[in-house]
Amino acid sequence: MNHTSADADYRAAGFGQGLVPGARPALLMIDFARAYFDTDSPLYAGVEALRDTAGQLLDTARRCAVPVFHTRVEYQPGGADGGVFYRKIAALKLFDRGSPMGDFESPLGPLPGEAVITKQYPSAFFGTDLAMRLKAAGIDTLVIAGLSTSGCVRASAVDAICHGFVPLVVRDCVGDRLREVHEANLFDLAAKTAEIVSLAETIAYCEGLADRKA
After folding, report:
1. What is the pTM of this model?
2. Is 152 one of the catalytic residues?
């Protein structure tokens, strides 16, 4: 089944109903760690283009006063707080406390005052106070960028919709180590969990909200 026929099949079954973004978005920058950009890292994903596209999205959010939340992964040395997940993926030891591979990739790190969520599992929500922070801020829509599409991006989008936030996954600002895996997960997210939007659409959305506030 090709992509066109698969899309038609899913829509005929009732998947992929559109979600309307709200008026109070936040930007979630997921795990923009050096480990995914350093060619010597086992987690290297070949996603250098995201430095530019995700950087544009981040700059737009800041300019338009959209709250920004960053996530990072960190484990106790040896992964005692990582449970079965840490045992499943050997490369997660790169995120043991003190490892430079867990540092934010420049220029995608947080500015002073921007929230940083430290996590041990794929979802930005699991075991963190992210949902509470978003609800306290009146957020209704979560714009999602980051790594990887099949892992932490997907898990966070699923949990976002479960918590009542409209998830907008920005196609140009997420990535994975294999293109086929990336595309398959975007297809499934669009069908069941999130809206898949372009960088241009997202910039226009943020700027439109900022103009209305002005």
Report:
1. 0.95
2. yes
